[in-house]
């Protein structure tokens, strides 16, 4: 369906860069601002508009925020039947929007919802999808979207193109791209999308939402992260890191080894299969510096590594390295902070 024939110049029928303005409980997800930043750059290169797709129940009030962060247009669909996300309803509505309006590019955050939704839309609109991208560029020569993501266990970066199908679709890993700056003087239009959603067709019904008591932390948002690795040797080691993080006004991060050992929840995991973070300060304690871990924290402004092995790979990316036993060093750092406070 969405095959575009280069011989007939069908590519030119598809225009505009879309982003999925994911909202939960009528609040935009942080990744939306990252998508807007990328979309704006691309749209300026391609000389087209940025359209934010906003759907939900009573969500129109979010439109101006999207415009202030770079959208030229908000494509809005409101219906009380989609107060909560369901794969079927969202994928039907967005696929219909795509069919009618023919965007050239569509970006979604690689959140739980984005990862669920994007493949369904790609299948419905018969186009390709590159999941979990960490870099996006427009090819200077032919204007195609170059979508880059880690492949083969993070050992290589693969750049993928979608030459003959439209739209070009990508999910983008949260926390990697820079957020769009806010400009309150921007103006844009809100277009209400007309679609008769047949509630009967939605086979999944949400009966109740039970929120898990949250131990989750938004480490992607933190300015200071104190991260622990297998060098902690035991679950209780994280209590020490928690104390340091609290002193510094930060949060605790973790390597996958510690998550796999059940010492801490996955929400804290930094790296290729965890979260990508770029805090002002990242303190890596007892983390060896495996490529998959580095992939998630290398863009931190300052990296401090504490490791008893002077040859640990983490020291290669660290701005400051402390060679020694973390159980000696961290209490001393905490004491020094206490002394400053006094
Ligand atoms: P280790 O490599 O065991 O390192 C422990 C370090 O602690 C050592 O350097 C040691 O010298 C030091 N140490 C020991 N005792 C002390 C002490 N008392 N004081 C100070 N230092 C001490 N890993 C991630 O972290 N995030 C990911 O998202 C991720 N994704 C992956 C995806 C794939 C497909 C694969 C194959 C692997 C992935 N990994 C990921 C795993 C990764 O390869 C490493 O195995 C993992 O990062 C190692 O964790 P670590 O540094 O805590 O442990």
- Uncertain stretches of 5 or more adjacent residues: none
Write the H/E string, N to C.
EEEHEHEHEHEEEEEEEHEHEHEHEH
Bound molecules: flavin-adenine dinucleotide
How many distinct helices?
Answer: 9
**Assembly annotation:** single chain
Mean of residue pLDDT? 93
Strand content: 15-25%
The coarse overall form would be elongated
Please tally the β strands and state the result. Answer: 17
With strands numbered from the N-terminus, the spatial order across the biggest sheet is: 7-11-6-1-4-5-12
**Cα-to-Cα separation, first versus last residue:** 69 Å
Pfam family, one: ETF
Cofactor: FAD
Keywords: Electron transport, FAD, Flavoprotein, Transport
Protein name: Electron transfer flavoprotein alpha subunit apoprotein
Account of the protein in words:
The chain has helices at 30-46, 63-68, 87-101, 112-124, 237-248, 256-260, 291-294, 314-317, 326-341, and strands at residues 17-20, 23-24, 27-28, 50-56, 73-78, 105-109, 129-133, 135-138, 145-151, 156-160, 168-172, 189-192, 224-228, 251-254, 281-285, 302-307, 320-323. The strands form four sheets. Strands 7-11-6-1-4-5-12 form a seven-stranded parallel beta sheet, with helices on both faces. The protein has a five-stranded parallel beta sheet with strand order 14-13-15-16-17. Strands 8-9-10 form a three-stranded antiparallel beta sheet. α7 links the parallel β15 (281-285) and β16 (302-307). With 342 residues, the protein is α/β, with parallel strands linked by helices. It is elongated. Helix content is 27%, strand content 23%. The chain binds flavin-adenine dinucleotide. The site of flavin-adenine dinucleotide has 29 residues, from α6, α7, β16 and α9.
């Amino acid at each position: 369906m969405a095959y575009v024939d280069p011989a007939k110049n069908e590519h030119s029928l598809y225009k505009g860069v879309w982003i999925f303005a994911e909202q939960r409980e009528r609040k935009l997800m942080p990744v939306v601002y990252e998508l807007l930043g990328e979309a704006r750059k691309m749209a300026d290169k391609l000389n087209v508009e940025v359209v934010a797709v906003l759907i939900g129940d009573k969500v129109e009030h979010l439109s101006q925020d999207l415009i202030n962060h770079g959208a030229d247009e908000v494509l809005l669909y409101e219906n009380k039947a989609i107060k909560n996300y369901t794969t079927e309803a969202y994928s039907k509505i967005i696929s219909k929007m795509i069919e009618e309006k023919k965007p050239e590019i569509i970006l979604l955050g690689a959140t739980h919802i984005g990862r669920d939704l994007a493949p369904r839309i790609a299948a419905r609109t018969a186009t390709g999808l590159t999941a979990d991208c960490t870099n996006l560029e427009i090819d200077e020569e032919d204007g195609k979207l170059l979508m880059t993501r880690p492949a083969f266990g993070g050992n290589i970066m693969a750049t993928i193109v979608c030459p003959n199908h439209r739209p070009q679709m990508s999910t983008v890993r949260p926390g990697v791209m820079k957020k769009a700056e806010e400009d309150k003087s921007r103006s844009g239009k809100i277009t209400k999308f007309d679609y008769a959603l047949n509630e009967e067709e939605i086979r999944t019904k949400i009966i109740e939402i039970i929120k898990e008591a949250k131990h989750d932390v938004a480490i992607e948002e933190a300015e200071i992260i104190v991260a622990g690795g297998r060098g902690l040797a035991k679950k209780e080691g994280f209590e020490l890191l928690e104390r340091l993080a609290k002193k510094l006004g930060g949060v605790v991060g973790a390597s996958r080894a510690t998550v796999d050992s059940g010492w801490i929840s996955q929400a804290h995991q930094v790296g290729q299969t965890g979260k990508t973070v770029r805090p002002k300060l990242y303190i890596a304690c007892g983390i060896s510096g495996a490529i998959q871990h580095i992939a998630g924290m290398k863009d931190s402004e300052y990296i401090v590594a504490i490791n008893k092995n002077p040859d640990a790979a983490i020291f290669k990316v660290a701005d400051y390295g402390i060679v020694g036993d973390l159980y000696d060093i961290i209490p001393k750092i905490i004491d020094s902070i206490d002394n400053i406070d006094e």
